[in-house]
Design a protein that fits this description.
The protein is 52% helix and 11% strand. The protein has 331 residues and is α+β, with helices and mostly antiparallel strands. The longest helix is centred in the C-terminal third of the chain and has 20 residues.
Length: 331
Amino acid sequence: MIGRNDPCLCGSGKKYKKCCDSKQSVSIEEVRSEELDRLLQAFYDEYPERKDFSVLLSVMNDWKAKLEQYLDEEMIEAIAIDEFFFHQKPEIWLKYIEKQQKKTLRPAVANVLAQWKAPTALLGEVMEVKQHYMLIKDILTNETLYLKRESDKPVPVGVHLFCFILPDSSLQENHYLAISSLIFIPTDHRDVMTTYAKNNAATSKEAANEFLQNHLIEFWELLGANGYGGGEFTDFEAGILLEIMDRLEKQNRNPKQLVNIVEDYLVVNQPNARKEAAVAAGAIRFGQEHQLFEGPYWSFKEIAEWFGVSTHSLNKYYKDINEFYLTSAVK
């Protein structure tokens, strides 16, 4: 057992009583993780420097010219900035890490930074979802890794994702975190992912990481041409959500609380309905019974008629959503 006058285990150089003992409920891992999160945020606050603006602007304009018909400007810029930092000008990131290493850091933080010198791009498929991590299969190499979850929001197995990754702050073997925006790609675009992976396999002169670096914009063009617009939901799921929002807004009701629950329901249960409207109708009944929007409320018959579905279909999905909600609330 560590004494209060012993050196703190976190490696700060301070006595335990002057360091982590005062943070009784905060683990050493949490302290280290928070410090590394601040370092990541500071990078985006400090860079790019003025001398890099013209090159970055050129990259952004190139990406916008090719993708603006598919994606909104904010998303294109976010992807292009990471492409600039980690593919085209990786020396900027390396310079930043080396500068941080020269500062007085906790040894535990310094150990992580030593592993953070080369972010890599990841195109993966979610194979399993755990409490804090997702098991991901890299679609270009078929290797698996654990990627840290960014929130408690449900993640569907089978969905694809894109991000740049670094070793996780815990430095557990084969555990990573997303340094950039973690972008989920709906299952509607599975064929695009498969085709892109096959193209890499057929290219003998390039390793997987080189292929992704040299052909990343082509990947986003393929997705865009296949109908991808930046959303995380399939066309069917998005249709359900739009039906709900449209109906409630026309009735001067705020759909936000209901939509948040239905989003999670769609991700976890992935209902196999023939009509989007049937799920939307069931969701409206569920929402009013849980008073997720203001009344006055409507009869089941009225709701079914609005959506052109039977009360049987309405009730089926009402029960499904209600069961999901009650089960989630217990957890």
